[in-house]
Amino acid sequence: MSALSAPAPGRARRTRAVVAGLWLIALVIFVLFPLVITDSTATTIAVYTVIFMAATTAWNIFSGYSGYLALGHAVFFGSGGYAVALAARDWHFKGGWDVFGLLPFAGVVAALIAVPVGLVALRVRRHTFVVVTIAIFFIFQLAALNLGFTGGTSGINFPIATFPPATYNNPFYYIALAILVISVLMSWSVRRSRFGLQLLAVRDDEDRALGLGVKTRRVKLIAFVLSAFPVGMLGGLYFYFLGQVYPQFAYDPLFDISLALMGFIGGIGTLVGPLLGALVLETLQQYFTQSVSGTGTYLIVYGVLFLAVILLLPRGVVPSLAMLWQRRRVRAATRAAESREPARRGDMAGVAR
Amino acid sequence: MRHFRRLAQVGAVLAAITVLAACGSSSNKSSSTSSSSGSNASSGTGGSSPITIGTSLSLSGDFAADGQAFERGYQLWVHDQNAAGGLLGHQIKLDVLSDASSPSQVVTNYQHLIGSNHDQLVFGPFSTLLTVPSARVAARYGYAFVEGAGGGPSVFGEGLHNVFDVTVPVKNGLVTWAQWVASLPASQRPKTAAYATVNDPFTQPQIPVAQAILTAAGVKTVLNKVFPAEVTDYTPIASQVAAAKPDAVVLGSVDVPTVSAFVHAFIQQHFNPKAFIATAGPDQGDAFVKAVGTGNENGIFVPNGWFGGLKKADSQKMVAEYIAKYGGTPSDVNADVAEAYSVGQAIAQAVAATHSLDNSKIIAYLHSGVTLNSVQGPVKFDSLGENTAGVTQTFQWQKGNLVESIPTTAAGASPPLFPKPAWVG
Amino acid sequence: MSATALLQAIVDGVLTGGVYALMAAGLTLIFGVMDIINIAQGAMVVLGAYLSYELETKAGIPLLPGLLITIPAMFVLGMAIEFCFMRRVRETERAAMSILVTFAVAIIIEGVLSKAFGVDYVQLHASYVDKSIYLLGFYLPWIYVIAFVLAAVLLVALYALLYRTRFGRAVRASLQNRTAADLIGVNVDRTRMIAVGIGVAITAVGGFAFGATNAFNPNSGYDLISRLLAIVILGGMGSIGGAMAAAVFMLVINDVVAVAWSPTWAPLVFFAALVLVLSVRPQGLFGRSGVRAQ
């Protein structure tokens, strides 16, 4: 919050009310979306978009707040997918709303996997950590390819969901939205808690945090496991939507990079940033691929845009906007202070107050 | 102040992105010539409104080479069919979306083609891995899903009644070759064989079938290994094969680089098997020859439902048109082109027979046990959608050309070159 | 599994390790100098391979002499990339940002190559690619021997450059403490630019070795980069000798496991070994601990 000019209590309450109102409006828009826009292509893209918004938010709980770039969350995504597929097959689920009941199971599986993975990966720092997550990711992909029960390269098929074609996407959309709300709530409550403060301390200066008594290992591990849970559920949902899970796609390096990119463009470490980044990128990517990906041009344009945004907005959109907002508030406050005491030219405006 | 400028820059970038996306999606819509009258309208209304057939192809990404060949095949068929009057008197327009070899994209694409664009018919994408998600979308809308490149076992028997694969099912690919080897007189027959395959749903089912035939004929297995697809260095496994000094080598491969790597490793190790068959790669024509080095391709077998020199009228016509448009020789024509073309032919025959574009009627017709014709030979679908009438032939590179070789009794078959000539080096 | 098969696997591993060392050398150098993880390394290797390919097919210039053209070309490219992109990455979030920036560069390179060469697989040809030397009962393919020797020579040259010349001292100084280096008169920006240029120039040779031993297309960079990253981290980021040792170590394990157990499990053991070593020794086999490490 602004340290320069403590706003009057009334204004703070008003700002909070405005922000809450905005969130509510956004939620309503999202809930109403598939009912208003019934074009099935749009709703398909919406399903993917909401899934990625939730995944990026969950990923951000770990990578954004702790500063450790994890490029292996596909491990949780794919494992969630396999968990649901195997369970649906072996426990003879019919296909329909019942399979959604398996999603929390997928989340738990992912969280359980996150514990040993986190214990191993978090022994090392920063750069090495990134590569260790990548290595673990490949271990999972290779294991899925080779172990018998995962179906090898053919993967596993899901039961066919018998929703009517015109509104087929809606159940998936709403479940994804529910998981999104859960992820956002998780991210918000972590941010406001003492635990979140400890995480941010780790991000800013880990050694100092350690010196100040923060149990950094435990804090990082908890955040890691927390971030895995929603991603596991989302994986189960995503592959159920596609109907099939197989190794090369369940454990896909592009997924990891996408999360990082969306997080960064939106503004890593913020609450809204990942949402914005995923919203913009996933929609654009789907439309782009359809129409232009036939040639290398697609890749070139994608890469250039990517670069442009990263270099021009290294903090991401949300923090930059926040800074801009800040500036305006400060300017308004100093102008207000000046107008109140025009005689006191000598003082630096506002500070004396 | 600096931030204002920054934000302005970003605003410009985002605006550019939005404009591009808008252009992209709108130009995409226009390319599909919104065939007005919605969905499965049945026959014979005013003959001038075009029919759209939608498909999603991998024009970039892992399957790009095959995806592009498929597009050419589809386009060739559309051109020929239009010249012959189109479907039920309507000209055909092909609505192609690109999926960058991604399953999530292929789902979006078929949603777009069927749900948004309301294309009357659809063709399948390339690869088993993309066929299942996309076939499900088509099944939901009751569309027939005829395809030529999704033959892995996971496609069939999973409750999808709308899938029809015009190409011979994968697992019997090596049968004719194995039977030929088994039929050789004992003095000539290879005594040992090595089997190596990449872990892929296209190749893995073929090996045990071939192995059973050969073992029954007394050919000993000296090596049987599966190797990972993503590893770019095949030297270790190839060296192992060479070190085992088998008389026959059976390679389960899906692309040119794999076969090429084995060939080069064999040359380096001064190992030349008496017989060498690869499940895919040698069927890629010119790309294959360039990779292994001219002269080294001779003697290598590859199973296929089709090849450029096939002496069948419609096939030769298609090949001639392909060469006229893209150059090269018959051997250069990628088998994917024929697979795609066959898909079109199957649909055309079903539409003609049922006098309608109604997908449910088409599905019923295709499941009725009728035998259709295609550039790849006869097509007859069983209850799972597999083509049971197709016969895999085995081809061999001889004197720089891919020729039909086994069954030796087939018309136009050239006797197999055996033992395999030495490497050119 | 016989002793000869095992020995063959070890020999194969050592030689292939040379090829990988060549490809990884540029990566570790760039990291050592810029503190940047160059995800585009795989794409650059493929680019180098395509440059050699283009010279060989269009201009008829054989592979080894062609290197005299590709190396300077990639040197200039490396400097350009440093100047245009790497320099702009903010110091505070280097690790994460560098990954994203270099990933974008990799995508652009792949797109350009797709447009220019299409997606068909190609391979570099030379009369010696298929020939081998017969030594002690093993056939050693010429191309691997050449790559191995080239790798060793280049790495020794690099070492000499870094530790025996004034330029090398400047590089190491700006690496250890940028401000101090600035203060004593080292033009840090220029030094870094040249160092990155050298890193990418070496990759041109790696591209040649890769392209001669593998069929490749613009997509091939993806498979490569994960292994290169593993090698570089294992060897210790910034340590050239470490990259060589790690490359040989990794490839030998890979090949031995392929023979002794199964080829499908080999790459997994590769990554598992990496994770294991790093858990015990986070700075890699030859990396420096403490100050520069993380």
Which key phrases capture this entry?
heterotrimer; A: 353 residues; mainly alpha; ABC transporter involved in vitamin B12 uptake, BtuC; 75% helix; B: 425 residues; alpha/beta; Rossmann fold; 2 domains; seven-stranded mixed beta sheet; three-stranded parallel beta sheet; 12 helices; 40% helix; disordered N terminus
Secondary-structure blueprint:
The complex is a heterotrimer of chains A (353), B (425) and C (294).
Chain A: H1 9-36, H2 40-66, H3 74-90, H4 97-100, H5 103-121, H6 126-146, E1 156-157, H7 169-192, H8 194-204, H9 206-211, H10 216-242, E2 244-245, H11 247-250, H12 253-266, H13 272-292, H14 296-312, H15 317-340
Antiparallel strand pairs in A: 1-2
Helix pairs in contact in A: 2-7, 2-10, 2-12, 2-13, 3-5, 3-10, 5-10, 7-8, 7-10, 8-10, 12-13
Chain B: H1 2-31, E1 51-57, H2 64-83, E2 92-98, H3 103-116, E3 121-122, H4 128-140, E4 145-147, E5 163-165, H5 175-183, E6 192-198, H6 206-216, E7 220-227, H7 235-244, E8 248-252, H8 256-268, E9 275-278, H9 286-292, E10 300-304, H10 313-326, H11 335-354, H12 359-366, E11 371-374, E12 377-380, E13 393-398, E14 401-406
Parallel strand pairs in B: 1-2, 1-3, 4-5, 6-7, 6-8, 8-9, 9-10
Antiparallel strand pairs in B: 10-13, 11-12, 13-14
Helix pairs in contact in B: 2-11, 3-4, 5-6, 7-8, 8-9, 11-12
Chain C: H1 3-34, H2 41-58, H3 63-84, H4 94-117, E1 132-135, E2 138-141, H5 142-164, H6 166-176, H7 178-183, H8 188-213, H9 221-235, H10 240-260, H11 266-280
Antiparallel strand pairs in C: 1-2
Helix pairs in contact in C: 1-5, 1-8, 1-9, 1-10, 2-3, 2-4, 2-8, 2-9, 3-8, 5-6, 5-8, 6-8, 9-10, 9-11, 10-11
Average pLDDT value of chain B? Answer: 83
The order of strands across the largest sheet of chain B is 7-6-8-9-10-13-14
- Low-pLDDT sequence parts of chain B: 1-6, 8-13, 15-46
Task: Tell me roughly what share of residues is in helical segments of chain B.
Answer: 25-40%
Report the sheet with the most strands of chain C, covering strand number, pairing sense and barrel closure. 2 strands, antiparallel
What is the distance, rounded to the nearest whole angstrom, between the alpha carbons of the first and last residues of chain C? Answer: 42 Å
Instruction: Classify the secondary structure makeup of chain C into a structural class.
Output: mainly alpha
Total domains of chain C:
1
Strand content of chain C: under 5%
Instruction: Give the topology string of chain C: H per helix, E per strand.
Output: HHHHEEHHHHHHH
CATH topology grouping of chain C: ABC transporter involved in vitamin B12 uptake, BtuC
Total of DSSP H or I helical runs spanning 4+ residues of chain C:
11
* Secondary structure: helix percent of chain C: over 70%
C-alpha end-to-end distance of chain B: 68 Å
- Overall geometry of chain C comes to globular
CATH fold label of the largest domain in chain B:
Rossmann fold
Radius of gyration of chain C: 19 Å
**What letter string, H or E per element, gives the SSE order of chain B?**
HEHEHEHEEHEHEHEHEHEHHHEEEE
* Count of separate structural domains of chain B: 2
CATH class of chain C: Mainly Alpha
